[in-house]
């Protein structure tokens, strides 16, 4: 049984296909969602294929959403890309279609959908959409290739993170055969505005780090307002602490207008997602998100991260003592 074939079979059975992805979209969410749309529009021009969700202003250059009416969902096939749990699906109408498919690469903590294809070994959902095309011998077309390439470089930090596999490079190589401006795309995704550059300066100036490489920074609403930055803009600096040699794992606490903190957690090698799960979140072993509802919870999460880094450091010391 090949789920990639089953998904294409379901697509062929429906005249209307509506594609969703997670809230606060990143390039992989948008790349997989709209990359799939372009692929299907290319091969099935007679079908109605729409994408829905909030148009993230900082990413409208990459892709934009369609207007989708409630009535469109009647008899529709709904495909949700890159979203582990139903609570994070952008546009709650996902449940009102005729058949629901989940395509994702996050740990399958919330199993949903009439058909579910979850591959945690994939670097990104964009990699999986490319495989959907390859497994079914469907030519991708230039537009889909560009979007999927953007999703892959977004979720792998341009082939930096350990999730980058041999297959990721093979898929990227096949996407690169299309004539889109891959260098311009990578440069655009790497570019930062002056306010983001200032925020990055603040992060390096104010980052707190302990002796085991656990680090944190708190970004207040006041700071974001002074720099005229939104919560979504902070995604541009999530990786910044990791560029410091000694930092092993880190959390960025972004204060929200309602006073709670959105927590963005990253790690170079020690899994941190169990901590995220304990604090209203989840995600990948090395890239997770959570929520803190008080300053005490902010400190608690940092203390848990420090504990993890300390355990790892002690284990390494124990190993080197045995040698
Ligand atoms: P972010 O720091 O927002 O880029 O999130 C990194 C990863 O953490 C995402 O790709 C999601 O897999 C996961 N994530 C973030 N926020 C949540 C949440 N509230 N619940 C579950 N997973 C989350």
Automatic annotation (TrEMBL):
The keyword Cell division does not apply. Pfam families: DHH (PF01368), DHHA1 (PF02272). Residues 17-152 form the DDH domain. Residues 229-310 form the DHHA1 domain. It comes from the Bacteria. Residues 291-322 form a coiled coil. Keywords: Coiled coil. InterPro entries: DDH_dom (IPR001667), DHH_sf (IPR038763), DHHA1_dom (IPR003156), Oligoribo/pAp-PDE_c-di-AMP_PDE (IPR051319). PANTHER family: BIFUNCTIONAL OLIGORIBONUCLEASE AND PAP PHOSPHATASE NRNA. This is Bifunctional oligoribonuclease/PAP phosphatase.
